[in-house]
Write a structure and sequence with these properties.
Layout: H1 3-25, E1 29-33, H2 36-46, E2 50-54, H3 70-76, E3 80-83, H4 93-100, E4 112-114, H5 147-164, H6 169-194, E5 201-204, H7 210-216, E6 219-223, H8 234-247, E7 251-254, H9 260-270, E8 273-276, H10 290-305
Parallel strand pairs: 1-2, 1-3, 3-4, 5-6, 5-7, 7-8
Helix pairs in contact: 2-5, 3-4, 5-6, 6-10
């Protein structure tokens, strides 16, 4: 074979490899988050190094996310799955994982981030009866509205990304540190904004707020649902109205997927203000980030009960 022909063959053998190098270098992690709070924390850590799919919408009840056809494909192609791990998605996630058949996402692997691990969950039931409604055997799963817990979840996400994509360790670690600094900087203001209202009671539609209430000292302890997941009954609502009038309760918290008509009726009967809230970034205006969500929750609640 002539020298020129050898050079020609070598050039065309190497060229495809050279062209593929940028594609290999730019490969992103395929990340699936079950719910928007986990998706928001994943964005904080992964930024442009991940392709993110969030299954649930901020406007959906997280207990009853409507599975869509693309969910299985997203889970099948996922490099990382972020879920509650506390039973919040138990009604809809397991069948999707069964269909996806992605061994990367088996429980115990670094690709499977179970956000509740290592967190002391509140409201663990002592007796479980069907009549009690949405009993979560592990405890209340609505924990990410506590900023300190959100930091712990973000750190767990960063560790997963590092384990799966070690070449970008410095990137993920730096993004976690930035998120941690943001929370640490804002936390005194958040606490200060609600400090004057620690003795006041607040009504909520569903028991989504024990961690937020614990962190900021607000008593969110009266609910329009007689038990979690049980629709409000006329007799129970009558009891709530009487208690609100007696204790001069000024605010009712309602999330996007809850029955606003019931909330408005209670507000008219008691003179309380309706506070539109969400446990998920993107659920109410001005909440495109996790810090933005907590900002809005604190501000709206403080404005309503002052």
């Amino acid at each position: 074979m002539s020298a020129n022909r050898q050079k020609w063959l070598l050039r065309y053998a190497i060229t495809p490899v050279i062209l593929l190098c940028p594609l290999i270098a730019q490969a992103k992690l395929n990340v699936v988050a079950t719910l928007p709070d986990f998706g928001s924390l994943a964005r904080e850590i992964g930024k442009d190094k991940i392709d993110l799919v969030v299954l649930g919408k901020p406007s959906e009840d997280p207990h009853f996310v409507d599975p869509r056809p693309n969910f299985v494909a997203s889970l099948r192609n996922a490099d990382v799955l972020i879920e509650s791990g506390a039973g919040l998605e138990v009604g809809w996630l397991p069948p999707l994982l069964e269909k996806a058949r992605n061994p990367k996402l088996d429980i115990g692997k670094p690709e499977r981030v179970r956000a509740s691990y290592g967190i002391r969950l509140m409201n663990i039931p002592t007796n479980v009866m069907r009549a009690a409604g949405e009993e979560h055997l592990s405890g209340n799963p609505h924990f990410t509205v506590d900023p300190l817990i959100a930091k712990a979840v973000a750190q767990r996400i960063a560790k997963s990304f590092v384990a799966v994509d070690p070449s970008n360790t410095a990137f993920y670690d730096a993004n976690y540190k930035k998120f941690e600094t943001t929370i640490n900087t804002k936390l005194p203001w958040w606490r200060g904004a609600l400090q004057l209202f620690q003795d006041q009671h607040v009504v909520a539609y569903h028991d989504s707020w024990p961690y937020f209430a614990h962190r900021f000292g607000v008593k969110i302890d009266i609910f329009l649902e007689p038990n979690p997941g049980i629709p409000p009954s006329p007799s129970h609502l009558s009891d709530v109205i009487q208690k609100m009038r007696k204790d001069h309760i000024k605010a009712i918290m309602v999330e996007p997927y809850q029955d606003r008509r019931i909330v408005d009726t209670i507000a008219r009967s008691t003179g309380a203000k309706v506070v539109e809230v969400s446990q998920f970034p993107g659920g109410i205006p001005g909440t495109d980030s996790y810090a933005g969500l907590i900002n809005q929750l604190v501000k709206r609640l403080a404005d309503a009960i002052k």
